[in-house]
Every structure is written in C-alpha cells, then in structure tokens.
C-alpha cells in the first residue's frame, strides 16, 4: 500500500517514447513541474499530451515542447507560448483544440469508464462539423484536418458526440498526499488535476507535503488513493506567478508586485 517512490526520475522511469499523458495544471498553477522535468531528463519523445494548455516557453510542458519531445497535444488554450505557435504553424506539432468544458468532461468520462457523451458545446462550428486544422504543412496549408462528429437531437436540440479521454499516464500536482495515494489539492491548484488523475491508467502524483495514512481527513480528500499508483515528495518547488500585477491606486493596502521570473510566495496556489 505504500506508493511512495524516492524520486521523480524513478516515478516516470517506465514512461516510454510514444506514451500519452494527461497533465494537470491551468496556466502556471498546479503544474507537476518536477515530473515534467524528470521526463525531459529521461529523453523520451514522440509524446501525446492532454492538458488545458501546453505550458509557457521553457516552463511546464513548454520544457518538453521546446525540446521537441511532444508530437501531439490536446488542449483548450494555446496562447502565451511562442514556440508552440512556431511548431504548430510550421507543421511540427499536431494540435487538437477542444472547448474547455468539453475537455474537462472528456477527462472525467475517461476516469468514470464512460466511452462518450453528447454535449451542445461546439454544435454549428468546426468542432462538430470538422475542418479544424490539426496539423499544418509548414507552407500555410492544412496537412490534416478534423473529421465531422456525430450529432443527434434530444428534445429538439442538437448535440455533438465527444469521446472520452484515457491516457497511458497521468501527471498531477497536489498540496498534500499520503502513502496510500490519497490527494488534497489547494484552492485553484486543483483545476484539471483531479480529472487527469482519474483519466490516467497509471497516475503519478507529486506532493508538496507527504503525510502518514490517517492524517488526512477523509472528508477533505479530492482524489482517493485508488486512482493513484505512485507518489513523489517534492517539498521545494519553483512556483511561478503567470502575470505581473501592480495596483494603480493609493487608497488600499500596498501593492504586491510579482514577476514572471520569480517564484511565488511559499504556499501561494492562487493565480493573480
């Protein structure tokens, strides 16, 4: 029952080239950076990732992207990553864009054993009708486009069929975890982490604080240990704030100034 492994490198040792990964995080919040860095060091490539976004340049999943280790990615947001744009438009990266709520439900369905579901999101657009560029040819043309999806009417409304997502591995970040794999996420760092944790056939969790079984209140557990196969203790993390914010009025408390390059304060899990 003890699922703790000594290092991030050992935790991802059986991730091979060509593996599919569900990766938690939203922007720079709740990203399993230690596990991603271990994958980068391992040298695996040709990866397929599923995540809300693909990190930023040279951080988070952006580290793997910059090293050209990702072949295909499924996500909802592609901004703030110049290398992502370059690879996609240059025909080096295959990209499946999906509405954010649909992505969340596809992951949830995968974890729940539901093969597919109908949703109104995307009806009447290329999401349902097909034609979304999945890969460019590097010369401005589309080398591969999405296929039309099945639609059906229920009570006079049209819905599109979306398939669940199930991946070989899931990489997630949690504030607390015990040796049995029970996880607790902190505030907005939960984001896609619980969904990814359930969708992976092998789920690997990096945790900031490792506790003994019984120390977590069962009522506060977000991901039960049955979904988690490995736990890595990573107490010292580089937590970054995505946007620099400065208060412009002098009528309130002094402004907190952060930078993209500086780690956030210890314990800060919220986005500015």
UniProtKB/TrEMBL annotation:
Residues 243-272 are annotated as: Disordered. The keyword Transferase applies. It is an enzyme of class 2 (transferase). Keywords: Transferase. Its EC number is 2.8.3.5. InterPro entries: CoA_trans_fam_I (IPR004165), NagB/RpiA_transferase-like (IPR037171). Transmembrane segments: none annotated. Signal peptide: none annotated. One of its GO terms (molecular function) is succinyl-CoA:3-oxo-acid CoA-transferase activity. Residues 248-266 have a biased composition (Low complexity). PANTHER family: ACETATE COA-TRANSFERASE SUBUNIT ALPHA, KETOACID-COENZYME A TRANSFERASE. This is Succinyl-CoA:3-ketoacid-coenzyme A transferase subunit A. It comes from uncultured Frankineae bacterium.
């Amino acid at each position: 029952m003890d699922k703790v492994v000594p290092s991030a490198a050992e935790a991802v040792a059986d991730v091979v080239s060509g593996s599919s990964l569900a990766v938690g995080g939203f922007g720079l919040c709740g990203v399993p950076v230690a596990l991603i860095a271990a994958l980068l060091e391992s040298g695996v490539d040709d990866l397929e990732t599923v995540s809300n976004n693909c990190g930023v340049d040279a951080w988070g999943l952006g580290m793997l992207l910059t090293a050209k280790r990702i072949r295909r990615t499924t996500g909802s947001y592609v901004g703030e990553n110049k290398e992502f744009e370059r690879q996609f438009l240059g025909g080096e990266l295959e990209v499946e864009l999906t509405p954010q709520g649909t992505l969340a439900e596809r992951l949830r369905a995968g974890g729940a054993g539901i093969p597919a579901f109908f949703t109104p999101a995307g009806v009447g657009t290329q999401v349902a009708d097909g034609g979304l560029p999945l890969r460019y040819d590097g010369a401005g043309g589309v080398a591969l486009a999405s296929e039309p999806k099945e639609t059906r009417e229920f009570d006079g409304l049209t819905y599109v069929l979306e398939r669940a997502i199930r991946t070989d591995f899931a990489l997630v970040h949690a504030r607390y975890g015990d040796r049995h794999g029970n996880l607790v996420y902190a505030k907005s760092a939960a984001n896609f982490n619980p969904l990814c944790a359930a969708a992976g056939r092998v789920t690997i969790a990096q945790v900031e604080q490792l506790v003994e079984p019984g120390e977590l209140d069962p009522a506060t557990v977000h991901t039960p240990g049955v979904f988690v196969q490995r736990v890595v203790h990573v107490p010292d993390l580089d937590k970054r704030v995505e946007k620099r914010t400065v208060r412009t009025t002098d009528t309130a408390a002094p402004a907190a100034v952060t930078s993209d390059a500086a780690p956030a304060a210890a314990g800060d899990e919220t986005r500015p």
